[in-house]
Specification:
Helix content: under 10%
Number of strands: 7
Oligomer: single chain
Strand content: over 45%
Order of helices and strands: EEEEEEE
Distance between the termini: 23 Å
Structural class: mainly beta
Length: about 90
């Protein structure tokens, strides 16, 4: 069964000015990767293939809600295929 998570924030682990609001995250059944779709383009620049990101589903500064992942593929200007969360 597919899982959809609505909202949150996504930021670069190395450049905290590169941040964006998440529209939704899709995890397809049987896949480890997450498809992340943004509400708009990230501030400053786009996320890059191979870049380490931090996804916070609550959209807060609560580090307990952070999930680390890597961009595996850029699907579009505001869409990414990422490794599943790595705590």
């Amino acid at each position: 069964m597919d899982v959809i998570i609505n909202g949150g924030t996504l930021r670069s682990d190395n450049d905290h000015e590169v941040v964006a609001n998440v529209e939704y995250v899709l995890q397809k059944a049987g896949e480890k990767e997450w498809r992340i779709y943004l509400k708009g383009l990230p501030a400053k620049r786009n996320f890059l293939k191979g870049e380490k990101l931090v996804y916070n589903a609550k959209g807060t500064n609560n580090v307990n809600a952070d999930n680390d992942m890597i961009v595996k593929e850029v699907l579009g200007p505001a869409a990414y295929l990422c490794s599943g969360p790595k705590k």
